[in-house]
Amino acid sequence: MFRFDPSLGTAFPSYAIPTILGEVERHFRDSLWNNPLTETLGDMEPGFDRIVNREALRPLLRALPERERHILCMRFFCEMTQSRIALQLGISQMYVSRLIIRTCARLRHQMMADTHDQRTAS
Length: 122
Hints:
This protein has 122 residues and is mainly α. The chain contains 6 helices and no strands.
């Protein structure tokens, strides 16, 4: 390896820049052949989309009327059947089904509208 010798009359940057660039290029060349680039990049976490969707849904769920929010909670978080929810609330299973379908459709529509708004704003 050559060392800088000021007695030769060359400026230090003339020596340093090509030397440093050469070392950096050699490092990346040698590193990439041994550590594929795909191993250095991160992968998408398996549950990431689920977390993003849950966080996007949180304010929409809070804005629901108490009864609809309670029914969705019983159905999807407590894993109760529609019949059991109907029995507990004193309403028909068909009415519970319609409420769940209507509420989920409204939430889906709001999420799609928010996604569309975010895309057009960027």
